[in-house]
Each structure stands twice: as structure tokens, then as C-alpha cells.
From TrEMBL:
This is ABC transporter ATP-binding protein. Belongs to the ABC transporter superfamily. Ycf16 family. It comes from Asticcacaulis endophyticus. SMART domains: AAA (SM00382). Keywords: ATP-binding, Nucleotide-binding.
Length: 249
């Protein structure tokens, strides 16, 4: 589903990703773990199309389509979704307006009919209830004054409504207490599907206790140094990354 080959990326003339290769099949959840500065967030931003992330070599495809040739909005319409570590606040734009505008913009690019306001509100109420989001919160400017947990639940709401084909979760557990982590994780797990893939970027094993991955990849110095099953997260928690620092290849 997601196929990355020999991806090399520079930011401000500094090479961060150094020939990274990764495959995530449809229906699977893969996790990326690694020390600070390894390139985890760079990978997510590059796939999403952030402008100052320069791809100097390699390829990235989603369902056989070249992601790197698409603009940011085209990648979103193709089904790619990036959940931010620190979701942006947008003063003056109600959350409901933001989400419906994004949803219908994507549908239009795919040649689909727009979702009507009644249908959108009905669907949103159902999803919001499962995520313990009050509808009054959705009338407020997006993420303005929201707690960390509220911001992350808002992102899961967007995922559930936009129904992307591939999710990239960049440190979704950041800033969450244990109760909020459970709610957010349940929302993410509800999105697992045979035709959807996920890439979970995290520092900590605790998130992977709630969102169990099929595979874990250790990213060190811009390359995948080691891959393994879900038990690898517990090994990292116990031993750290030191033994992999010289293995990146």
C-alpha cells in the first residue's frame, strides 16, 4: 500500500533521511520508533508534502500512485492523512466548518458529490459521541483553548469523517493523560480496516500497548536499523536504542 524506496530528504541543506526503504501493506499498522533526531517526523512531513522538505533521491507511492509528484491537497484527496504531534489552532474558523470544508474539497477532487449539511451533522454527532466530544466544542474555533486531549480527539474525529486510506500518526500520545490516551487509541483502533494502512510514529512503548502494531521499525540516523514484531517495543523500553546506533543501513 505504502511503498518507500531509498528515500533521501534534506531540510535546510541538511540531509535527514538517508536512503530509507519501507513497505506498509494494506490492513497493517506499522510503528516507527527511534531516538530524537532520527528523522521520524521528517518522514511524516515529507510524505504529506511539507514545502521545505526536499526529496533528493528515492520514491514514495501510495497504492501505486507517486506521492512525490502530487501537491499537498492532491495527496490528501488520494487518501493520505497526517496527524500532527501539536495540532494547529485556527482562530475564527469553527471546527465544524473546517472539517466539512476539508471533506467536501476532497470529495470534489475525487469527482464525488458533496456531503449535505444534514448528513454531515448526523454523521459527526455519531462519531463525536464515541470520542466523548461535546457538539458545543465543535462550534468553537478549531483547537483554540482546547486541552491536549481535546486536540487529539479532534484529530481522530477528522480521521473518522475524512476516511483516509493511509494514516500517519505523529506522536499521537504526546500530551495525553491515561484516560485521554485510552479514548484516542480506541478511536484509532476503530479505523483499522483491510483496505487501510497506518504508520504510527512514537517514542514510547505505552502507546503501542493500546494500538498494537503488526511491525515495528527502528529509525536511526535517517535509516531503518532494525525491524521486528510488536514485542520489540518492550525490548526498547528495557534496553534503549544504543545497540542499534551503529546498525543503520
Amino acid at each position: 500500500m505504502l511503498n518507500i524506496q531509498n528515500l533521501t530528504v534534506s531540510v535546510d541543506d541538511k540531509t535527514i533521511l538517508k536512503g530509507l526503504t519501507l513497505d506498509v501493506p494494506a490492513g497493517e499498522v506499522h510503528a516507527i520508533m527511534g531516538p530524537n533526531g532520527a528523522g521520524k517526523s521528517t518522514l511524516g512531513y515529507t510524505l504529506a508534502g511539507r514545502s521545505n522538505y526536499e526529496v533528493t533521491a528515492g520514491s514514495a507511492a501510495l497504492n501505486g500512485e507517486d506521492l512525490l509528484e502530487k501537491d499537498v491537497h492532491e495527496r490528501a484527496a488520494a487518501g493520505l492523512y497526517l496527524s500532527f504531534q501539536y495540532p494547529l489552532e485556527i482562530p475564527g474558523v469553527p471546527a465544524l466548518t473546517f472539517i466539512r470544508t476539508a471533506l467536501n474539497a476532497q470529495r470534489k477532487l475525487r469527482g464525488e458529490d458533496e456531503m449535505s449539511a444534514p448528513e454531515f451533522l448526523k454523521t459527526t454527532r455519531e462519531v463525536a459521541k464515541s470520542l466523548k466530544i461535546d457538539m458545543d466544542m465543535l462550534k468553537r474555533p478549531l483547537n483554540v483553548g482546547f486541552s491536549g486531549g481535546e486536540k487529539k480527539r479532534m484529530e481522530v474525529l477528522q480521521m473518522a469523517l475524512l476516511k483516509p486510506k493511509f494514516l500517519i500518526l505523529d506522536e499521537t500520545d504526546s500530551g495525553l493523560d491515561i484516560d485521554a490516551l485510552k479514548v484516542v487509541s480506541e478511536g484509532v483502533n476503530a479505523l483499522r480496516a483491510p483496505d487501510r494502512g497506518m504508520l504510527v510514529i512514537t517514542h514510547y512503548q505505552r502507546l503501542l500497548d493500546h494500538i498494537t502494531p503488526d511491525r515495528i521499525h527502528i529509525l536511526v540516523d535517517g535509516r531503518i536499523a532494525h525491524s521486528g514484531g510488536p514485542e520489540l517495543a518492550h525490548e526498547l523500553e528495557a534496553r534503549g536504542y544504543d545497540e542499534y546506533l551503529g546498525e543503520a543501513a
